[in-house]
Amino acid sequence: MIKKSTFQRGILANGIVLLLTLTGIFNTFAKQEVIPEKLSLNTVIIIAMVGITGYACAYPLRKGKPLEPMVNAIFATLWLAVMWVALVWLYSTIDMRFIFQNLTGLNPSPLTFGETVRFVAVEATEIDPLLPIEFGGLVKLIIFCAMMGAISGFAVLLSLRLQLIVGVSAVLTVVLSLISTKINGIITLPDALAFVTAFGLAYLVSWFLNNRRTTPLPQWLLMAVGALVGAFVAVGLLFVGTEEAFARGGILRGIGTAPQIIDMGLRGLIGGLFGVFALTGVAGALAPKAERLSHNTSLYFVMMLIVLGLLNTGGRKLPLETALLIFGVLTLGIALIPSLGKKAESQFVQLARGGKLQSRGIFLFVLAGVVLVAPQFMGVSLANNINLIILYAMLGIGLNVMIGYAGLLDLGFVASIAIGAYTVGILTGPNILTCNGVAINPNLITLDEINQLCTGRIDFWGALPIAVILSAVTGMLLGVPVLGLRGDYLAIVTLGFGEIINRIIYSDKFKPLMGGAQGLSPIPVPEIFLPIGGEEGINLVFGNATSVFYLYIFAILIAIFVTYRLSISRQGRSWRAIRADEDVAEAMGIHTVRTKLMAFMVSSAIGGLGGAILAAQLQSVTPENYKLAFSINVLALVIIGGMGSIPGVILGAVVLAGLPELLRELESYRLLAFGGLLVLVMLVKSEGLLPPAPPRLSEQARLLTHPEPAGTD
Amino acid sequence: MGELLLHAMTITKRFGGLTAVNAVELKIERGMIASLIGPNGAGKTTFFNCITGFYTPEEGRIMFNNRDIRGLRTDQIAYRGIARTYQNIRLFGAMTALENILVGMHIHLKATPIGSVLGFSRTRREEREALKEAYRLLEFVGLGDKGDLLASNLAYGFQRRLEVARALALKPQLLLLDEPTAGMNPQETDEMMEFIRNLRDKLNLTIFLIEHDMKLVMSISDQVSVMDYGTKISEGTPAYVQKDPAVIKAYLGSAPEEVLSEQA
Hints:
The complex is a heterodimer of chains A (713) and B (264). Chain A has 713 residues and is an all-alpha fold. In chain A, helix 3 (41-58) packs across helix 4. In chain A, the strands form 2 sheets. In chain A, strands 1-2 form a two-stranded antiparallel sheet. Chain A has a two-stranded antiparallel ribbon with strand order 3-4. In chain A, strand 1 (33-35) and strand 2 form a beta hairpin. Chain A has helices at 4-22, 25-28, 41-58, 68-93, 136-155, 160-178, 180-183, 189-212, 219-240, 243-248, 253-256, 259-286, 292-313, 320-348, 353-378, 380-405, 414-428, 447-453, 460-479, 487-506, 511-514, 545-567, 570-580, 582-587, 592-618, 628-641, 646-662, 667-684, 698-705; strands at residues 33-35, 39-40, 527-530, 538-541. Chain B has helices at 44-52, 74-80, 97-104, 113-118, 121-140, 156-168, 186-203, 214-220, 238-243, 245-252, 258-263; strands at residues 4-15, 18-29, 33-37, 59-64, 67-68, 82-84, 174-178, 206-210, 223-228, 231-236. Chain B has 264 residues and is of the alpha/beta class. The longest helix of chain B is centred in the middle third of the chain and has 20 residues, at 121-140. Chain B is built from 11 helices and 10 strands. The chains are: A mainly alpha (713), B alpha/beta (264). The A-B interface holds A 561-562, 565-566, 569-571, 573-574, 576-577, 579-581, 583-592, 598, 602, 694-698, 700-702, 704-705 and B 52-54, 73-75, 77-79, 83-84, 86, 90, 92-96, 98-99, 102-104, 106-107, 109, 111, 113, 116-117, 119, 123, 127-128, 131-132, 134-136, 138-139, 144, 147-148, 150, 166, 170.
């Protein structure tokens, strides 16, 4: 009845849970609440621990007898309960803090359901009456564990799709509520609903028109209908919304901050309103027959708007009803959108070439618009997190060229980042190179003196290409001596390179140039002067998180574009061939040395680009920032996301750079979670969260070879 | 026929104290199907590896189209027009069947990284042509409907054929096949035999193969060379080799000669 696998997995799960409990995880998160007064983070953690244990033990038995998974899961979760009971007993009997210094507050704790457990009656004092033996909390714990075991044993029998939908929605809801204070100021519910109405109405109308007719409607007509629907919603808003709401910004906060529109006053605002909503309507009308990527992205975006609007209603606290609503929206969205996307794609492929381009163009335009106004809504703190994610995603995309495409394990990636950052730091700031050979200490002289003396400085835009080229060239030079090495050997040597670069920037010898341990500062803020909009023009300053965002977006788009194009080209095929079998690749005529050097070069160039922008954002460079851990972080996100897959790397960056950043409070457990996640992903999905999809070229190739249409029937 | 394509001149390859290939002399004329046979460990694959540049022989010269290719890198030898398959199939498992062939076409493509990134029309046209050509090859080996499958997911027989298609994509003058029928049943072996003959007749290839299946070797070869303990012990037409006492001795010790001819 109880299988061997249950014992194996049970031991593992118990070990992990025991370890986490002993490190005082429940104490660390004691003050965190997912839903105020209803659900604490600790409870969520307990549910997750017990649920995952039960699920893991039931999973191998899902195809066996119907009751078997449940029995095994309950066995495993009860085992967990017994261990916890024993732990609480031990804790109450002896002071375990001598060994486990963080272990406090286990009784009462969420484990005892907040009740104080007493294993022996406590003698009465004058004030207190006799306190009897009390273990109701532990009984609850045991019952709870058994129930969770039953639920998880039942869950494995459900269809995988259903499990995935509910699981992902639940996890997302918890994460969202934890970070709600950070993201609840983005958009108000009425604003969100206005957009959702415009989009959704246009979507439905277009869907209806499409389905009612045998011959498809012309694209322009659909767009016109969509624009009308959007305008209709906008008119409605004019009636509903007050002038005060418009003045405050509200919906038009993004566009409203552009100085020209403010100058145009209310008329401009109304014009903008109609424009934005008409565009939303057009997108909604085109979505039912758009490319799957456009369709799904826009629908997920709409879903996100609703969720953000809902979060906005609660203030600092997230009421239970809102949480449930969010969970519902997420479940619905995740369940419906992919299948709707499939239908849309099937309609899209029937469009003429012009229609396809038009549809793609409009969605790109809308996406560009969203990206352009997004920082206005985010606020500095969220923008900082998002910038970090983009930076890591971009670096991951760079490293991915080495690891994912060419199969070269590079542990010294930080070297290219540091070279990019320091190049910008040196060329734009005061030091011996830019100050005509005078060694200066920027802390001891005034700005005027710097301006007088340091005439060799150039601005960020001049330094950026130099940084990228320098990184690429050094990356390639570093590559030359190690090309003969494979696998582990290469990893060790690149590790050394990273360390060498770090030593160089640390060293006192180069202090006049690179600032030694203090690094270089200040690095001037990048600015662009646009000679438009009046005589004085507009000066775009990338001085804070919301504006540096644009730099990062620009850079990551370049990185994605270049690496994607390369990956599907002759170069990319050569890389992957070398990764698969170097000898055979060479026998196919591939020049392995040149191909590997190309990988070193591209990857270093992207690393340098990332480093350069990072330096400009931080307005300083210090050797502390460019250490081995940086390389390892980037490496980990590439591996977790999926080596060789650009979407995978981006997801990896969101998970590894984003979540720990948003869950600031998890800080002390960040590295533990980091390691645990690495192990888990490697065990369950060794190819990463989103492994690369093999390119589907067959259909295109067949059509090229046999030009007659496929379905001649 | 008659024009010399490959001439291995007294090739010797040693691994430490072991002489794997010992002063082997071998000539292959253009348009021939030549076979190399011999007991296990006779040095056949090592000899292949010497020709394709995986190993550099210590002595001797390898003349291909009257030019010495000894000491060239593997990729340079591929450029000169020698392609091969492997005894234990070595496809790029994580790539699709079509991509495997596209990799084989590498030397005939001119796309540069910059051209690919910027999407020059020349590069795009070349890529379309390559795709077309690759699909034709895929159809030629009978895998037209399996282009998007990962090579590692193909059935064994298909993998063999894909490997040949990948080698053909190099448009080689000389195709080396290392045990093309290993692990195949008699029917598949017959199909492979027909396939190899087709390659020669339709594509004007010169084929040099290592094979253990005597029936196949004797029926399609124009020339059979026999190796044992690193040296060539016999060479000639299938009929001649079958009767050569040295060959019979190598294969069967000193048993009667009928055995080998019966097999054929």
